[in-house]
Structure formats: structure tokens, C-alpha cells
Specification:
Blueprint lengths: L5 E5 L3 H13 L5 E5 L2 H10 L4 E4 L8 H11 L4 E6 L5 H6 L4 E4 L4 H15 L8 E4 L5 E4 L2 E2 L5 H12 L5 E2 H9 L6 H20 L6 E3 L3 E4 L5 E2 H6 L3 H6 L12 H15 L1
Parallel strand pairs: 1-2, 1-3, 3-4, 4-5, 6-12
Antiparallel strand pairs: 6-7, 7-8, 9-11, 10-11
Helix pairs in contact: 2-3, 6-8
Length: 273
């Protein structure tokens, strides 16, 4: 059990809030447990004190728990949300919001312990699955445990960059050829050259023992987005560190990346609005 998690409990009834925070502490599942009575108070607290888990009541005056949960997810997408309520009819709304858990009052220490075990599994979704980090903001780079990968061929590196940009979508050899050589005819000679670039890419990835990030089928090539961490993907997921690191620069060496760059710039402006 991960006992490093920080918890915030939110309920507009002082007695119930005290009970929930006390039960969370008695469960001995969390590193710290704090409470807030009002939604606005909770948002102010969270801005200065990010937490791993939020237990929140749904039926609160003013900003209810569902509206508060949406704002929390905007601020901290990785925060686990567990609704605690007496009203079962809210369950559908809670899960439409992609809540991570749902407890009905009154709750017990055992309820919290079971939920904590479930939360530990949920937290694994946000842990880097490998030691591979792919940088797309600025120049394209691949790092393994902090060490940059050196590619034998520049075009092999560009192929991987394009596949990362496609986010796991399968790409045909003809499409890759149109990216690498633009308007040139994809003839037999180009097919042979492309095979050389792909084989070089496979060789490089294997040398760093990260061949699992790349999938080569007979007709298509793709990356496995679940096998590495990427600033581009983190940005799209709304993660705070990626939002802060994006400064309008994306795969600068490649002209074909301009479309995605425009999209990111537009999305970045909306995030700041």
C-alpha cells in the first residue's frame, strides 16, 4: 500500500467532514488528510497544495460536487476523485464525469481501506511505464534513463518523429515516403531506401533495448503510445508540467509538423484563457 498519498476531504456539513477526515486518518492509508467545507475554499487550497486524492460530497450549496470535480480535473487531471454521498441517484452523473470512485454514507474505515487499494491501482495509470521519454517540444529527441538516443541515420529519426506525431495511428510506407521525399516519385529505388531507413531505426532501438516502442507490421508502422512518456501526449492530457514546458515550438526540424504545431498553439491559448 502506497502511504505517501495526500488527501483532501470536502463536505459542507462540519460534523460529517470531521467524521470523514477522521476515518481517513484511522485507515492509516494516507500520508496526510485535510478537509474543506466549501468548494471555493477547496479550490484555493488545491492551488497551493496539490493532492493525490479528493473525497468530495456531491450535494453541496453553491458550487456542487460535480461542478467542483470538473474544475479540479482541469487543474490537476491526475487527481483521483472519489464521491461520497447519501444520494444514489447522483451515481450516473458522477461516473459520466469519469469519477474514480463512489462511496455512500455512512462510510467506515474498511470502506476507505478498500478504496485506497483501488486508488493505488488507479495511480499506476499516471506513472511512466518505461524509462523512455520522447521530447517533441523544440527539437525531437529520445531519452532512455536520461541518456539521448543516437540515430545512425537522420531519416530514421524523422520516421520515428512522424510516428510519434501520429500518436499510434498506423502509417503506410507510401505515406512515409511522401513525408521523406515530398513530391518525388515513390519508385523501386525509393522503396529500397525506405527499407534501409526502417531497418536502421529498428537496429538503433534494439541497441538501446527500447524496440518495444515501435511496431512494424507488413503494411503499416506505428508507435505504442503506452510504452513511453512524451511531452506532446502529456500536453494533450492536460498535465501541468507539459503545459508549462510548451512555448510554441514543436518538432522544429520538420516542415510536416506545422499542422500539429498550429493546433498546439491554438490549444495553448485556450488553456491560458
Amino acid at each position: 500500500m502506497d502511504q505517501t498519498m495526500k488527501v483532501l476531504c470536502i463536505d459542507d456539513e462540519p460534523i460529517i467532514l470531521q467524521q470523514i477526515t477522521q476515518i481517513c486518518r484511522e485507515s492509516e492509508c494516507f500520508a496526510s488528510v485535510n478537509g474543506c467545507l466549501k468548494a471555493e475554499e477547496a479550490l484555493t487550497y488545491l492551488e497551493a497544495n496539490p493532492v493525490d486524492v479528493v473525497f468530495l460530497d456531491i450535494n453541496m450549496p453553491g458550487m456542487n460536487g460535480l461542478s467542483l470535480a470538473e474544475k479540479i480535473k482541469e487543474l490537476y487531471p491526475e487527481t483521483v476523485l472519489v464521491f461520497v454521498t447519501s444520494y444514489l441517484e447522483y451515481a450516473i452523473d458522477a461516473f459520466q464525469l469519469h469519477a474514480d470512485g463512489y462511496l455512500t454514507k455512512p462510510i467506515s474505515v474498511e470502506d476507505i481501506q478498500k478504496e485506497a487499494a483501488h486508488i493505488n491501482q488507479l495511480k499506476q495509470r499516471f506513472q511512466p511505464k518505461t524509462d523512455v521519454f520522447i521530447q517533441t517540444f523544440g527539437n525531437f529527441e529520445v531519452y532512455v534513463k536520461g541518456t539521448p538516443v543516437r540515430f545512425e541515420r537522420r531519416k530514421s529519426k524523422e520516421i520515428l518523429a512522424y510516428l510519434v506525431d501520429k500518436r499510434g495511428t498506423g502509417v503506410s510506407r507510401a505515406e512515409l515516403a511522401s513525408i521523406i521525399w515530398e513530391d518525388e516519385l515513390y519508385d523501386h529505388s525509393k522503396q529500397k531506401q525506405l527499407d534501409v531507413f526502417i531497418q536502421s531505426l529498428k537496429k538503433t532501438l534494439a541497441a538501446y533495448d527500447i524496440q518495444f516502442i515501435f511496431d512494424l507490421q507488413k503494411r503499416e508502422l506505428r508507435v505504442d503510445p503506452s510504452s513511453f512518456q512524451c511531452d506532446f501526449y502529456d500536453f494533450l492530457d492536460g498535465k501541468a508540467n507539459a503545459k508549462m514546458s510548451y512555448c510554441g515550438s514543436y518538432l522544429d526540424a520538420y516542415s510536416w509538423a506545422e499542422y500539429t504545431k498550429a493546433y498546439l498553439s491554438h490549444k495553448g491559448l485556450n488553456l491560458k484563457a
